[in-house]
Amino acid sequence: MKYNLSLLFISFSTILFAQENDLAFNDTIKRLAPVILTPKQQSPERMPEIKENVLFSGKKNEVLKLSNINGNFTTNNAREIFARIPGVTIWENEGSGIQINVGVRGLSPNRSWELNTRQNGYDISSDVFGYPEAYYNPPLEAVETIELVRGGSSLQFGPQFGGMLNYVLKRETKKKFSFETQNTVGSYGLMSSYNAIGGTFKRFSYYVYNHSRSADGWRENSEYTVRNTHAFVEYRFTENTKLSAEYTNMDYQMQQAGGLTDEQFNANPRQSLRERNWFGTPWNVFSVNFDTKINDKLTSNTKLFGLIGERNSVGFIGTPNVVDDLANRRVDRDLYENYGIENRNIYKYKLGKINNNLAFGVRLYKANTQRLQDGRGTTGSDFDISIDGRYVRDLDFTTENVAVFAENQFKVSDKFSVTPGVRYEYIQNTGEGRFGINSSGNDVPFPDKTISRSKPLFGLGLEYKFRTTNIYANITQAFRPVLFSDFTPPAVTDVIDPNLKDASGFNADLGFRGTFKNYLNFDFSLFYLSYNNRIGGIRQFVNNDPTQGTFLFRTNLGETINKGIEGFANLNITRLFEIEKPFGNLDFFASVSFIDSRYTDFRIFNASGTAPNVTITETNLSGNRVENAPRYIHNFGLSWSNNNISATAQYRMSGRIFTDANNTVTPSANGVTGILDDYRVFDLSTEYKFLKNYNIRAGINNLFDEEYATRRAGGYPGPGILPGEGRTFYISIGAKL
């Protein structure tokens, strides 16, 4: 919302002179040109129609500006940060914040793998079409904004069901040199230091940060250390052409406390029965970015990007009802290497007198994953991934991908636009290597496999604008190829269906969003998500005997339909009653979502035999709820700010979830399956700014010390039920000079 302010300037000396000489002074009045004041937009903001050669018209999207939010950025507390985005499911494996696990609309939050996860617009997950888990995310103290675009983004960013999640890092463009530091201490030995320098000198810009953090952890056996370093440099050839490069290096090691049975969790959720389990993922991400404005009609962006990383784990991975016998631990390793180039363009043209926009581009991508599993590790308790002999599994997976895409925004009028689009994907996966070692010591080969797909995807977006609000609608196809990682998951208790099929479906949105005057920001929408051939887990008894334990049989479970309502509203109470000057800004916000996620074609399997050699019989049982999909997720909060002080109190409510497709209610003896109760968590965070450039931040997470859990695991980092953290606090001091 914009206001025109006409400034009236009268010279005081001129008035006196006019009065003394009995003169009229109207002629001495000077009218200055109008000055446009733009109030700070309430969080979350929304994307403009076009940004960085991407069309966002007609798509549901949110932009979180972190400087407008109070929260625990030190440990990347996703529960606080994503509270203003409705429908976000969060897995809380542990409190380190090294990995952010989020999903939307009832989709799995597992390392955000149903989202296309990016940093500054380029991929940061292991292998987009082979193993799309995000083991890395930037420290939120280094992040300027978080952008989330729902399923309508699949035409321009790839065929994922959840949408696109992009972390945009901070940059300094106003000073020649700036320095920022944020230093934090907190519960259970938390120590963190974030330090950054940046600036602009003539045609050059640069930004470099280092973030280091360590803690003992709320649970026993959950200590961690993490370091994250990033460097960025940019050169502007002209006002319209620039070239930049950036590099990120992360390394961490984290002790994994393991899962619990329900009995153990109820007795003491902080306890751990595993002290020899460790996890680490050294990560390297780099990109080169070229932006140019060719003429008034055409702009172009090209990103060359790559990733070299590892996933390393060592430990005793038995279920929590099995005692660690202190024998040789299991070592699993993944080695990732991927490269890509992505070109995006916007062409502006006129049909009649109305401007229209065409977004088009191409993507080339290649990834390689070497999967080494079931190595015979040491009997020690430290983070040692050396092995004795060979890995039982030694597999090599390669992904090649070519995509072309185009969306055109046809503006029927200044208010109404129609945006059809198409994306064509070609994906080829190959796999080879050793799947096992038999009793004679000979290799069991993995059947050499090459899977090729050519997949067109179509979509349509609509948007009608009013003065400060708009109605939007979108329907877009989505696609998820079978991953080679689906055939060989790290979850050691799972049994895999060798005949897995690709998943396909679509996302649909209809919503109303915008601002009203200067005190209300809102977005309410309906969604419908169809997911065919969804891969999930069916609980089975070993040898059909409940006394021998359970395992999950992973297979295509038929079609699921996720539908519901998502709503967000932020009401500035003091602006509403025009009392913000004496009392500051008091905002009430609420993000609510009601999610109905069900199987409409549910194929249930009964197993006989000994895993993994099982015989399967099939029946159909539709109507079951999708696992890990709560029926509701609500966040309510009050945020107050006045001059240099601000505080936010927020309350999260999340419904109970089933953890397997059978909708098993009674927990299994090993803690791997069974319903998880709903939970309520209250968080409080504050910030005080002083001497212009300094700040003190403090907060308490889980203020009322709620005992809860958000997930169960079949393998790492469990198996078993994984408790959420109890009450913790932090205090931080920082400066930006």
Please outline what is shown here.
This protein is mainly beta and 737 residues long. The protein has seven helices and 44 strands.
Structural summary, described in words:
With 737 residues, the protein is mostly beta strands. The chain contains seven helices and 44 strands. The strands form nine sheets. The protein has a 24-stranded antiparallel β-sheet that branches. Strand 32 (535-541) and strand 33 (550-556) form a beta hairpin. The longest helix is centred in the N-terminal third of the chain and has 9 residues, at 12-20. The chain is globular and about 75 Å long. It is found in: Cell outer membrane. It comes from Flavobacterium macrobrachii. InterPro entries: Beta-barrel_TonB, Beta-barrel_TonB_sf, Plug_dom, Plug_dom_sf, TonB-dep_rcpt-like.
Poorly predicted spans: 1-41
Structure classification: mainly beta
Principal-axes shape call: globular
What is the CA-based Rg, rounded?
27 Å
Count of alpha and pi helical runs: 7
N- to C-terminal distance: 32 Å
Helix content: under 10%
Q: For the residues shown, what is the average pLDDT? A: 89
Pfam family, one: Plug
Subcellular location: Cell outer membrane
Signal peptide: 1-18
Protein name: TonB-dependent receptor
Keywords:
membrane, disordered N terminus, 737 residues, signal, cell outer membrane, TonB-dependent receptor, globular, transport, 5-stranded mixed sheet, mainly beta
